[in-house]
Design a protein that fits this description.
184 residues; six-stranded mixed sheet; globular
Amino acid sequence: MTHTASNLETKIATLGCGCFWCLEAVYQLVKGVLHVESGYAGGDTLNPDYESVCSGQTGHAEVVQITYDSAQISYEKLLEIFFAIHDPTTLNRQGNDVGTQYRSVIYCHDETQRETAYQVIARLQKEQVFDAPILTEIADLPVYYKAEDYHQNYFLHHPEQGYCAFVVGPKVSKFRQQFSNLLL
């Protein structure tokens, strides 16, 4: 269903779970997602750049900001995708990406998002979806910084690049299989 600007129920979610290229590539395929932007949040350094964030010294996490139409997709469903495409049981690590900049984090824009995040985690823990406790940080959205232009739409522009082919590509495939009903 196509929505006009006057009847969109636009909201924003900010999530981090390792490299932002993975999240961006997956959420760009989701029905109801209007825009995905890679960026940084949660640190102390003003105007961080990729090199400083990768050093692990800024405190920022690689995140994406997802603008979505809540009439088409719920925040809860966005979180279900989030938990399906990464391992939230590892502290400051996703595969070979190690450091606080790769932490699993949900930055909440309001109290409803916070409550939903806790509810989804509680349900996943109760269902024993993971073999270990979920270590995802839940926090209020701090200052968000857009990543450099060359990080935007990275997987779309560089699908053959090594990291994209061996890390991002499999996550996109997993999403396509598990959530085929949500594909654009």
